[in-house]
Specification:
Helix content: under 10%
Oligomer: single chain
Strand content: over 45%
Distance between the termini: 32 Å
Shape: globular
């Protein structure tokens, strides 16, 4: 049986992406994305507050150029990717991290008006090589 590791998020960018070039020339972009749920009133009038989840997003390769150019704090993004867990040690204490490795990104809205009236671009990171496809 084949397994699936797929994450779909629609949320707002919490900070401007950091783009770095790694040893060997491969680029990586990292930023945070907020998703929210809740925020409603029950039939009996009780307020259920909105709950925000923060996600660490990481992208590799050619898609990082599009991230660096178009993604800014406050932008709304649709992201597809996979969830990854890691462990590391900090100050002698074991810690865990959860990150989303992005494979596809659609810019839904940006915090500033874009000069073009055309639909926002979609960028996809091919799973087997580092080129970027724009649709």
């Amino acid at each position: 049986m084949k397994s699936v590791n797929k994450v779909i998020l629609l949320g707002n960018v919490g900070r401007d992406p950091e783009v770095k070039v790694l040893t060997g020339g491969n680029a990586v972009a990292e930023f945070s994305l907020a998703t929210s749920s809740g925020g409603y009133r029950t039939k009996d009038g009780k307020e259920v507050p909105q709950k925000t989840q923060w996600h660490r997003i990481k992208a590799f390769g050619a898609i990082t150029a599009a991230i660096e150019k178009y993604v800014k704090k406050g932008a709304t993004l649709f992201i597809e990717g996979r969830i990854e867990y890691s462990e590391y040690e900090k100050n002698g204490e074991k810690r865990q991290a959860t990150e989303i490795t992005m494979e596809l990104m659609s810019l839904i809205s940006s915090p500033q008006p874009t000069p073009q009236a055309a639909p926002q671009p979609t960028y996809q990171q091919p799973p087997t090589h580092g080129s970027t496809t724009t649709t």
